[in-house]
Design a protein that fits this description.
This protein is α+β, with helices and mostly antiparallel strands. It has helices at 10-25, 37-43, 61-68, 75-82, and strands at residues 46-51, 54-60. It has 2 domains: 1-34; 45-83, no CATH class.
Length: 83
């Protein structure tokens, strides 16, 4: 899904996030292209961080935090540290 929350208001965004989580809990996998890392952090389990056409990091948020030596950084913090 490319930018699945683009154009939605807050309530609609939460509803879509809840639906994605519900379907994923049933064993489905989603691949989302999201530029808003706050939204990505709220709904995704694993990440591939891209910059300048190259993979800068991948894995669960805790893995990315460990890689950047950030014990509690947000996904945005991790991205900025890797790029």
């Amino acid at each position: 899904m490319d930018e699945p929350f683009d154009g939605f208001d807050l309530r609609q965004t939460r509803n879509v996030m809840d639906l994605i989580r519900e379907v994923a809990a049933g064993g489905r996998t989603f691949i989302l292209a999201i530029h808003q890392l706050v939204d990505a952090e709220r709904v995704c389990d694993r990440f591939v961080l891209l910059a300048d056409g190259k993979v800068k990091g991948s894995g669960a948020l805790d893995d990315l935090r460990a890689h950047t030596q950030m014990s509690s950084g947000s996904l945005e913090d991790v991205f900025l540290a890797l790029t």
